[in-house]
Design goal:
Number of helices: 13
Strand order of the largest sheet: 8-7-6-9-10-11-12
Mean pLDDT: 94
Number of domains: 2
CATH architecture of the largest domain: 3-Layer(aba) Sandwich
Largest sheet: 7 strands, parallel
Number of strands: 12
Shape: elongated
CATH class of the largest domain: Alpha Beta
CATH topology of the largest domain: Rossmann fold
Distance between the termini: 36 Å
Radius of gyration: 22 Å
Strand content: 5-15%
């Protein structure tokens, strides 16, 4: 059972303090116990992501290690509240935009994340949104369930063909590469943007080409965003860049919400400047711009990109393993570069 927030059961002198700040899929307590961590050293606060920041800071005082959801901000105030004993933050995600890496570096706090189990399910969701948006599934489901469908009509809810078209993957990391790989079945030409060349994507059967964003957008029939969120990618898709897209193209975002200027996207959708959009993430989660809700050519999902039982359980295992590794004096499997070597 979880302990009350911010409390441990009979802590031992000099004991480590491991704080789990979410309700993980699987059993993080058993995994920690298997690594020799005493029950009294573990505090689980399943609803920390919905608590005020000041309350979360109270909970983590004296922490040695923290397993954090992306809904908890790890900034200087959080780190200072945790105190000098804090050695590692394990983020229950692949994205790390909720963490101030510079502040962690200054305090010699290691940061880890969990890339592997995020890759395939998120690429699946990207293609789910891509197909649903291109073929207008939201409007089709609404019509079919309305009771007002009048039967087959050769011009009813016409979408666009993906087969033989051009896919632009924006941010060709692990997830972007998995999205590109799935395009083989649709015989699509694949373009990608990235900070560096991705040789594995260039050869058959993908045969991708690296382009700049401005060069790729006018060519693409489908644009899938898998880039990380940082100062250079915030509002990467804005009125100007959305305006470079084909009117028949679709935009899919499975990265982070603020990569897209939702106001500009909503305006483009309502004006018919692009065919549609598929979004699993939003600029101000969990709030969604009402103009997106009103747009008939958008498919919306509640941030479920990696939401499979198997992958979330694997994420829990990875995060716990890296915490235990660091506390045992070993190197974590998935460290995040916080700056110069700590």
């Amino acid at each position: 059972m979880s302990q009350p927030p911010g409390r441990t059961k009979n802590p031992r002198p000099g004991a480590r303090r491991i704080h789990v700040l979410l309700d993980c899929v699987g059993d993080p307590l058993s995994l920690l116990l298997q690594r020799g961590i005493h029950r009294s050293e573990i505090t689980i606060t399943p609803d920390a992501g919905s608590l005020p920041p000041e309350r979360v800071r109270e909970i983590v005082r004296g922490a040695t290690a923290v397993l954090a959801p992306l809904t908890v901000t790890i900034d200087a105030a959080f780190l200072d509240a945790a105190g000098p004993a804090l050695r590692v933050i394990s983020n229950y995600a692949v994205g790390i935009d909720n963490i101030d890496l510079a502040a962690c570096h200054e305090r010699s706090v290691l940061v880890c994340n969990g890339p592997p189990p995020m890759v395939e399910p998120t690429a699946d969701i990207a293609w789910t949104l891509l197909l649903a948006t291109t073929r207008r599934l939201r409007a089709g489901i609404t019509l079919a369930e309305s009771g007002s469908w009048g039967g087959y009509d050769s011009k009813l809810l016409l979408g666009h063909r993906l087969t033989g078209g051009t896919l632009l993957v924006v941010g060709a990391g692990r997830i972007g590469a998995a999205v590109a790989r799935r395009a083989i079945g649709w015989h699509m030409r694949v373009l990608y943007t990235a900070r560096s060349e991705k040789p594995d994507l260039h050869g058959p059967p993908i045969s991708a080409s690296r382009v700049t964003l401005d060069a790729g957008l006018p060519l693409a029939d489908a644009v899938v965003l898998t880039t990380s969120l940082n100062s250079s990618t915030r509002h990467l898709m804005n009125a100007r860049t959305i305006g470079l897209m084909k009117r028949t193209a679709v935009l899919v975002n499975v990265s982070r919400g603020p990569v897209v200027d939702e106001g500009a996207l909503a305006e483009a959708l309502h004006a018919g400047r692009i065919h549609g959009a598929g979004l699993d993430v939003f600029e101000h989660e969990p709030k969604i711009d009402p103009r997106l809700l009103d747009a008939g050519n958008v498919v919306l999902l509640p941030h479920i990109g990696s939401a499979t039982v198997e992958d979330r359980m694997e994420l829990t295992r990875i995060c716990i393993a890296d915490i235990a590794n660091v506390l045992d004096g070993s190197a974590p499997s998935f460290p995040v570069d916080t700056g110069p070597a700590i």
